[in-house]
Structure to design on (344 residues):
């Protein structure tokens, strides 16, 4: 069997799945228990806000749209961190937003030095660029830490992803980021609108999962995300992109009605990725949280009692006014990834 026939049907980069229409939502004939309408922000904890803002507004051209502080009982319950006091900055790139949180107290643990991209706590954001060559040169000029061995161009023998460029790198706290460059026939239409910018916006956030079916029961059947596509990634380009020798991934792309997509990355090989620490907290630097908007949080407690949602908050919590939403609850998915459910 030739290499082309062996891998021709594989989807080499997960992001191409997000451009496909016709996905299915909750299981046939059922209604999602807690339907979400939008992925609003993708957030993570930082050790030094000034350093992070320098990186995200100078190396990457995000711009600040909100800067606030939060503390008090509501914030403690919402984060699951007793005595929590934090500065929260929201940044925008194109139509999408990220949220950086620095805890003044209590300070959490640093990013693990031995973290790998097949560990199940892995999460990243994928930033679309108009030119991989120019974007990579800009990152190199700023001495960013590589997470891939270098930019990868997906080969033409793969009809679903041929010509897509991708590169993983890390921010000052060692959070994973990705840049993507789409050829004219790939990606969402919005990425091909005439624009002069180099960095265009966020296409998706990706998370490593241990069991795709268990994750679909949470994201699709409970939260109402639609499946936009599915496939397997493997071979040398995927290994160099993820920096995992022998990597073979089952990839499922999800979307809500608005906002960035969520990709489920299940490593079929190697299967030695470590589970997320059971004691990870929101003030640890490895903490990420994806904020999604729901019409109501009334189903949260019944879902927790049925073991379909793992609570960090004890239930829906009235949010501090500085956070910009009325009610929220922090929960974890089957692999420990945090989602902040909010009602405006």
């Amino acid at each position: 069997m030739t290499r082309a026939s062996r891998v021709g049907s594989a989807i080499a980069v997960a992001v191409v799945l997000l451009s496909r229409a016709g996905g299915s939502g909750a299981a046939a004939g059922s209604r999602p228990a807690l339907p979400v309408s939008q992925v609003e922000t993708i957030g993570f904890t930082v050790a030094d806000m000034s350093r992070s803002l320098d990186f995200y507004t100078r190396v990457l051209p995000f711009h600040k749209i909100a800067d606030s502080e939060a503390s008090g009982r509501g914030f403690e319950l919402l984060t699951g961190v007793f005595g929590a006091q934090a500065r929260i900055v929201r940044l925008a790139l194109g139509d999408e937003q990220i949220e950086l949180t620095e805890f003044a107290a209590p300070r959490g643990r640093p990013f693990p030095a031995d973290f790998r991209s097949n560990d199940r706590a892995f999460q990243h954001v994928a930033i679309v660029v108009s030119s991989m060559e120019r974007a990579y040169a800009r990152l190199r000029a700023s001495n960013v830490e590589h997470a891939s061995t270098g930019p990868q161009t997906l080969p033409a023998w793969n009809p679903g992803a041929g010509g897509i460029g991708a590169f993983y790198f890390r921010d000052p706290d060692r959070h994973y980021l990705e840049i993507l460059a789409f050829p004219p026939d790939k990606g969402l239409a919005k990425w091909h609108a005439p624009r002069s910018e180099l960095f265009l916006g966020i296409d998706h956030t990706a998370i490593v999962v241990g069991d795709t079916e268990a994750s679909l029961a949470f994201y699709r059947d409970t939260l109402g995300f639609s499946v936009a596509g599915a496939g397997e990634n493997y071979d040398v380009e995927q290994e160099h992109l993820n920096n995992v020798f022998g990597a073979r991934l089952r990839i499922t792309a999800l979307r809500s009605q608005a906002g960035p997509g969520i990709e489920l990355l299940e490593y079929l090989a190697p299967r030695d990725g470590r589970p997320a620490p059971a004691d990870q907290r929101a003030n640890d630097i490895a903490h990420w949280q994806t904020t999604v908007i729901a019409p109501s949080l009334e189903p949260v407690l019944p879902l927790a009692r049925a073991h379909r949602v793992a609570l960090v908050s004890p239930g829906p919590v009235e949010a501090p006014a500085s956070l910009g939403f009325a009610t929220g609850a922090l929960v974890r998915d089957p692999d420990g990834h945090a989602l902040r459910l909010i009602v405006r």
